[in-house]
Amino acid sequence: MKHLLLLLKIQILGFFGINRLxxxxxxxxxxxxxxxxxxxxxxxxxxxSVMIALGCAELGMxxxxxxxxxxxxxxxxxxxxxxxxxxxxxxxxDYEFLMSLPIKKNAVVVSRLCYLYVMEFIFAVVFLLPAxxxxxxxxxxxxxxxxxxxxxPLIVPLLPMTAACILGSIISLCSTRFRHRNTVTVIxxxxxxxxVTIWSFSFRTAGEAEMAALVTNLEDRxxxxxxxxxxxxxxxxxxxxxxxxxxxxxxCVPLALFTIILAKSYSRINAAMSVVKINHREFxxxxxxxxxxxxxxxxxxxxxxxxxxxxxxxTGIGAVLLILAAVYLLFTDAAxxxxxxxxxxxxxxxxxxxxxxxxxxxAMAPSTAASISLEGKTRWIISSLPVKTxxxxxxxxxxxxxxxxxxxxxAAPLFARTFSLTGILLAFMFITxxxxxxxxxxxxxxxxxxxxxxxxxxxxxxxxxxxxxxLSMLAxxxxxxxPMFLILVFSRHAKIILxxxxxxxxxxxxLIYRKISSRRYYGFS
Length: 525
Prior knowledge:
Layout: H1 2-14, H2 18-21, H3 27-58, H4 65-82, H5 85-89, H6 95-100, H7 105-139, H8 143-155, H9 158-175, H10 181-200, H11 211-225, H12 229-237, H13 241-274, H14 293-306, H15 309-331, H16 343-362, H17 368-371, H18 379-383, H19 389-419, H20 423-450, H21 459-464, H22 467-489, H23 494-517
Helix pairs in contact: 1-7, 3-7, 3-22, 4-7, 4-9, 4-12, 7-8, 7-13, 9-10, 9-13, 10-15, 12-13, 14-19, 15-19, 16-19, 16-20, 16-22, 19-20, 19-23, 20-22, 20-23, 22-23
């Protein structure tokens, strides 16, 4: 137990560079911005959680709040951790060092799982608990129900974490049998996310005609989609301790079994992942390929992306979700009704906000937010090349545009068809998200230069847990959501707001790029 706690303490202190806060004065400014970003993100989750609960209560569906929030929290937790569970359990840089220490292998496995659990627990506290508290206040819950409500964040994350870890382990194990294991890992992980997303689309309404029926059968839909929600609903809405204990037991047992099985095969999986497959074909010397500096730097960024599954997944998930959303809206029967009173004006606002909706997906996780950090200890190589700083940064920006532009070109026509856009709106359906993709890429690069993370032990820390990643996402969402909000509120001036927002985004991208490319950034310090 002592070794387990020490390992978990080291991982928690290394989270977002917390350990440096106690040893470096310069780290305090960085930690302030990290804390500010985390607090803002947490408040955003709390706000959405409470709004969902209040919305259900307003529609007379207060009894459905516990089951609905359980389903949403489970799905979001699963999506968030399936792309990084394998990176936490396998393939981390200090694996050989940890296994050489006089500690049991089980302690290493359990400490890694506990680290994931802590992250899931924090998410459950800021997203699940506020809605349950709102439900308890609305319904006047008993003391026993309040106890189960406050224990829920401890129990709810267990099952989605187990499912994400199992799928992550299977994907990692399957990829070890292929030569291009990183490509296989990305394909399997992305395929799993797409499959679950498509499956979740079945949980929806079909239009206004079903609104009355939705009030009565929402819980039935949730129970069919996630059967374990039945026990949780009976425990919270019915005040049944036995059902809550059964829910907790069914959540804990799979995790315990997975931990036991993983501990027995942990060394074999990591050993298989560390084996480098060699092509034994006869070596023949060929002439050297000589390319222009920018092309060489760009292909280097492409190879770096392909060598890191977590980097590729984190960067590409926004583009994939954008295309899925466009296809879903095109073929769904939930079309916008333009015949109701006051709908033409509202529809105009929604139509002008559609280009910014596409831009949201480009702001999710720009590759530039981690491209500097991933240089790591070898950053002196790239910074010492005889090329201009602007060319180095342009190659990193071009990588992000290589992912976002094809997705925009595919999704924009589908959105235009869904909303029946013509004229200037059709043009801005392409122009606005393309401009914002450049802006978010440049913003991500500027923030990563200001808050780099070079001391990562796993790529996941640089890609998903760095200050620059969180700040880039918040900054990207801010520059997109603010004009979108203004368009929806002041729909009469939607055209002017959209044109002005696109122009300011283009101007901001140019100014930020000129700012960061004017310095040499020796060693990216």
